[in-house]
Structure of Ribosome-recycling factor:
Amino acid sequence: MTTIPEIKQNAQSKMDASISAFKNTLTKIRTGRANPAILDTVQVEYYGSMMPISQVASVNLLDARTISVQPFEKGMGPKIEKAIRESDLGLNPASMGDLLRVPMPPMSEERRKEMTKLVRHEGENAKIAIRNLRRDANEHVKKLVKDKTATEDDLKRAEGDVQKATDKHIAEIDALVHAKEQDILAV
């Protein structure tokens, strides 16, 4: 039988996981500056299996607008270059011996607006996930009251605590969305 503190702890940890997933999503959304995490989604063929670039090469920043990709093995350069070029990121890597330079093209005003819309949309999805966790936690507590293992006072207290956690996490999402929008709109 689960207890109210366990329900609250479970809801809290799932909300924290939702925030982590949202932060991970934000790293993949492009801003005007180069970010090595943008290549995390690109898969490259390596001895017959598909692997993320970070598994077959060192990915670093050369400067604010250029990512460098240094393959761990000779001969992987062309495969990595092809994988980046064919990804839907719109990047055009340039080979310099073993090193690949991936310049980030400057974003147009229209593209910046699209990106801010995407950030807001992802933020709204994260808020919905948090609210769903709140609903689930409250339903668990109500079930305990119905089964007579908790009182109405326990229910009210638990709902208040879960609401506080929900408000805190939603405020954190709003702050992350705002910061990412500022990052995107900064030229």
Observations:
- The chain has two domains: 4-28+108-185, 36-103.
- The longest helix spans residues 109-146.
